[in-house]
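hey can u check if this looks right to u? its 446 residues, i copy pasted from the old doc so theres a chance i mangled smth
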Amino acid sequence: MEYSIEKTSPISVSLSVTCSAEEVKKAFERAARNIGRGMTLPGFRVGKIPVNVIKSRFGSRVAADATEMLADDNMMTILEKEGIRPLYPAQYRGPAAVEGQEFSFSSSFDVLPEIDIPELETLSVTVADPAPPEDALNAMLDQALRRLARYEDITDRSPEDNDLLTVDVRGTVDGRPLPGMTADNFRLQLLPVRPGGVVPEMDPIVRALHVGEEGHGVMICPDNYPDPVLRGREVQLEVVLRRIQREVLPPLTDETAQKLGFQTFDALKQEVWQQTFAAHMRQIQREGKNHLMEELLASREFPLPESLVSRFYREHQRDAEHYLRKQHADEETIREMLEHMHEESMAFARKKAKGHTFLLALAQKEGITVSGKEAEDAVRAMTKGTGQNYEDLRKTIWEAGVVTAMQERMIADRALDRLYGAARKIMAESPMLRPFSEIRREEEKA
């Protein structure tokens, strides 16, 4: 085997390989033997079919398998020898090898750029007080009690705070329905507006209605709406109030706790506190990781592998398309919105690729790895409950690079965990919180 390597850019490598006719012959022999293992043909014992018979009967399959061996095995050997780690394992795409002839192929792939990776022990990040906020504790307790809640229909008044409403909504711009702002039997709860808080734009409309009545109003298309052309535009709302319900939670007693599987109400409160604390800690970690990455990336510039940018661009567009289809948008609307989102999707992709590239470089420096089996197990777990047979999907999954992408994401996630774990945590100041034993609505004291 002969080969040459050319670094075409700080993030791109080109590899050219030539295999001798003898190497090609050996690959064909090995491919034929592999195919013949366990195969049954009339006149031959199981697994004892001569290689020349396999080649004659299954020539195209033998050639395809031999080509894959020549390309994949040689590329792996060369890259390991040269100390090159491609972002994606390179796969040969081209004509099949021919037995008795030399086989030449080439491949190009992205590699990580040189990045300044700081000493992790020098990093610090400001995090919130780990004590769960009062409203989160009460919300989690209400969520537990809601399993035993009853609901009363209201027909003699307009909606009030904490009512549960069922509405039909039509949102239009220039008479055209907006996907995501048009729904039947949409459920919402009217929450009290805190002093200085922003009143949801639909609230004044529904609060003026009785069941069966229709109301109209205007809202501003939000900044996170998929189509950037429509953001900030006035949306005409048509709302029909179908139902008003009042949620009645059970009393805070030991009997209620026992119905929920706890011996006492204190035991229920303890469980609620633990769950709320765990959820709050996860939020703190997410925010801390984001702040840490933002600070590190703001002071660093490096070339981005286009394979990553392209992948994250496709993901952003695919997510938007999936959302629009769930909202029953027609094909023309989807096409237009995705075109409008091009620049935004590209900006998202470049930002995501920058963070991902940094984490992969950190993983390389720290020796963080994920085996192919770990990634395959993760993909297998994702298919559980979908009704899909993983073994049937396995070849397609490998060829589509799903396992490789999963492996790469898992490496980046582990690198981020290492980064955050090593950084010094500085707690932000926060007001003193009341103990959970005192937290409940005032009416419970009556």
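Residues 431-435 have pLDDT under 50 and may be disordered.
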